[in-house]
Automatic annotation (TrEMBL):
A biological process term (GO) from this entry: sulfide oxidation, using sulfide:quinone oxidoreductase
FAD/NAD(P)-binding domain segment(s): 150-265
Cofactor(s) needed by this chain: FAD
Ranges of residues in domain Beta-lactamase hydrolase-like protein phosphatase-like: 2-110
GO molecular function, one term: FAD binding
Protein name per UniProt: Sulfide:quinone oxidoreductase
Keywords assigned by UniProt, alphabetized: FAD, Flavoprotein, Oxidoreductase, Quinone, Transit peptide
Entry keyword annotation includes Lipoprotein: no
Length: 559
């Protein structure tokens, strides 16, 4: 246990264990404050377990959980109440100790000189300079005034964010627009399936962020900590405040690798891979090339996930490679799907099933990956079939391709913008926030019931841009999004089943059936995926050229 003393009566530490209580008692600690929410990490004891061990040692325990990356004024008040009521000395802990040190700094703001606060925390190993502005403001987040102000602020510079910025600039060049994103690199994520299939080089799917931000758009290279929509403010890490007239929220989603026990420790080795990460997709192809016999597992977690077809795309391309090399007969392909169907739009299932049969793949529905033991090459699944008691099964593997569980980013889930499930709450037609009239959202982080794909963002961006420009002009919404999404299912090298659909699974083909029947595998769809879609993404979508993506006029009944 690493206990870091800030004052004679207050210390902070990273996560503690139940077995640390005797040592804490011996060190004179009389009370503990837990600032880490339960369930944040797979190896984390619950607060109830910590509190029980503390009571046994005669130490009082208090639960003041604070989500990572966001310390609200209410959190500071709750921490202050706990500190006032508990006996000293007090130990506060979180994952690393930083949240606890931050809470103490904000509570002491106004009571101690700021240099003293910064010095005490630095001596304990925690640099609070990044939140000095908030300390100077008495520990409260100052959002009445901002460090900068823009006509439109866009959170997230992925496919949705850059496309909206470009579409807005094309419609209204004089707009002052800022895009907030801390990333140095922008990825063409739809290409990672092709990297994992040995078709694309990983480098072709990445470009520097600075080269893609539209001309005249300000890039704020920072992470978002919180939103204060009542004050039209976005709070950045370090407590800088950016004010807006209108806000667009599109930060993507969070790949929750930690939710699968043991997964992070073995990714990229022991035959454990995923096309959902840039650095791992090449490893998928290395495994496929070297495999000659054994069991290959492909997993799919509960919805929602981005590109719902990607887990089985990896399976098909791998099966095709083994088929072409003549080793497929010696490889046992197992598809483990937490859901109950192969694909959510039934029109495409017959074509997919023919490839499941071709590759002799076994479909295992209601199987949710919960743990991976890389060195032992074992995967554990929770099986929860309808009207059957849940159970766990462990399966050996030689190779496993994992699609991780996916959730909204932490700073979205805890914000006033989120619905009960943690996604940005929007009207599914206009993509305007249901509670805040000057906020819109698109891409993977919002809650419209569409497939989370780059093709969906390609249609959503012009809709949002058109509606924002109409709002600036004092008019109501003019455009609607029909739920369009596209999933080019790479069933073999050279052929694709091009799934295109909207809300409710309605088919939304882009081409006449005589030219391209999306419900059947075709070489034309493969040509589209391999040769046309990447340049369309880089040269059209991200530059505000709305080829085959013009916003659909709003049907008044849809509002």
């Amino acid at each position: 246990m690493d206990m870091n003393k800030i004052t004679d009566t207050f210390s902070v530490s990273p996560q503690i264990a139940t077995g640390d209580m005797p040592a804490l008692k011996a060190a004179g600690i009389r009370a503990i404050i837990c600032n880490r929410p339960d369930g944040e990490g797979a190896d984390q004891p619950s607060f109830e377990e910590i509190a029980a061990a503390a009571r046994e040692a005669g130490i009082e325990a208090r639960y003041v959980p604070v989500p990572s990356g966001m310390v609200t004024d209410a959190d500071v008040a709750a921490f202050g109440t706990a500190m006032a009521e508990l006996q000293r000395p007090v130990l506060a802990y979180c994952r690393s100790g930083t949240r606890s040190a931050t809470l103490w700094s904000f509570r002491e703001a106004g009571k101690r000189p700021m240099p003293e606060i910064l010095s005490a925390t630095k001596a304990a190993g925690y640099d609070m300079n990044g939140v000095a502005r908030r300390i100077a403001n008495g520990g409260r987040t100052p959002t009445d005034t901002g460090d900068a102000h823009f006509d439109v602020v866009i959170v997230g510079a992925g496919a949705g964010g850059i496309s909206v910025a470009a579409s807005l600039k094309a419609r209204k060049p004089g707009l002052e627009i800022a895009v907030i994103d801390p990333a140095d690199v922008h990825y063409y994520q739809p290409g990672w399936t092709m990297v994992g299939g040995g078709i694309f080089d990983a480098q072709s799917t990445a470009k520097t962020m600075g080269s893609l931000i539209p001309k005249g758009v300000h890039w704020i290279k920072a992470a978002v900590a919180a939103f204060e929509p009542g004050n039209d403010a976005v709070i950045l890490d370090g407590c800088r405040v950016v004010k807006y007239d209108r806000l667009v929220v599109c930060p993507g989603l969070k790949l929750d690798w930690e939710k699968v026990e043991g997964l992070e420790d073995t990714l990229g080795r022991n035959g454990v891979t995923s096309n959902y990460r840039y650095d791992l997709a090449p490893y998928t192809w290395e495994l496929v090339k070297s495999m000659r016999q054994g069991r290959a597992i492909f997993t799919q977690p509960p919805m929602p996930i981005k590109c719902a077809g990607a887990p089985q795309k990896a399976m098909y391309l791998s099966g095709d490679a083994w088929f072409r090399r003549g080793v497929l007969k010696d490889i046992d392909i197992q598809f483990m799907n937490a859901g109950g169907v192969l694909f959510g739009v039934k029109d495409y299932v017959p074509a997919l099933m023919r490839y499941v049969e071709k590759y002799d793949a076994t479909l295992n529905f209601f199987h949710d990956l919960v743990a991976v033991d890389g060195p032992a090459k074992r995967a554990t699944f929770r099986v929860a079939k309808p009207e059957t008691a849940p159970a766990e099964v462990t399966v050996d593997f030689d190779m496993i391709h994992v699609c991780p569980p996916q959730v909204a980013p932490d700073f979205i889930r805890v914000s006033p913008l989120a619905d009960a499930a943690g996604w940005v709450d929007v009207d599914q037609a206009t993509l305007r926030h249901k509670a805040f009239d000057n906020i819109w959202s698109l891409g993977d982080a919002m809650n419209a019931p569409n497939a989370k794909t780059a093709a969906a963002a390609r249609k959503q961006a012009p809709t949002v841009a058109a509606n924002i420009v109409a709002d600036i002009a004092g008019r109501s919404a003019v455009a609607q999004y029909d739920g369009y999404g596209s999933c080019p299912l790479t069933v073999e090298r050279g052929k694709i089943v091009l799934a295109e659909f909207g809300y409710g699974g309605a088919l939304k083909p882009s081409f006449p059936k005589a030219l391209l029947d999306g419900t059947k595998p075709s070489r034309a769809a493969w040509f589209l995926k391999e040769r046309l879609l990447p340049p369309i993404y880089w040269q059209a979508m991200l530059k505000g050229k709305e080829w085959m993506a013009r916003p659909e006029p709003l049907n008044v009944a849809a509002e």
